[in-house]
Amino acid sequence: MEIKTDLYLGDCKEQLRLLPDNSVDLIFTSPPYADQRKNTYGGIHPDKYVGWFLPISYQLLRVLKPTGTFIIKH
After folding, report:
1. How far apart (Å, rounded) are the C-alpha atoms in residues 29 and 23?
2. Nearest Cα to Cα of residue 4 among 18, 20, 23
3. Using an 8 Å Cβ cutoff, are 71 and 26 in contact?
4. CA-wise closest residue to 64 among 11, 9, 21
5. Under a CB-based contact definition with an 8 Å cutoff, are residues 20 and 63 in contact?
6. pTM for the full model?
7. Which of 12, 25, 31, 43 is disulfide-compatible with 38, CB 3.0–4.6 A?
8. Which is higher by pLDDT, 33 or 61?
């Protein structure tokens, strides 16, 4: 069995657009918490967090294979 690993570095909103539909077996992510790590991520107000994360999650679902695994570390 061949195992292929590709790592992408960059803003996920840009990097995900480069991937074809149904092409990823595993997504492991740890998105920033609302209003946490303001110096690193700029902070996201809790009232706006879902609206911020939904467009990203649509892209994650688009690239994930039907048999793929999606893990969110919190």
Report:
1. 17
2. 23
3. yes
4. 21
5. yes
6. 0.75
7. 43
8. 61
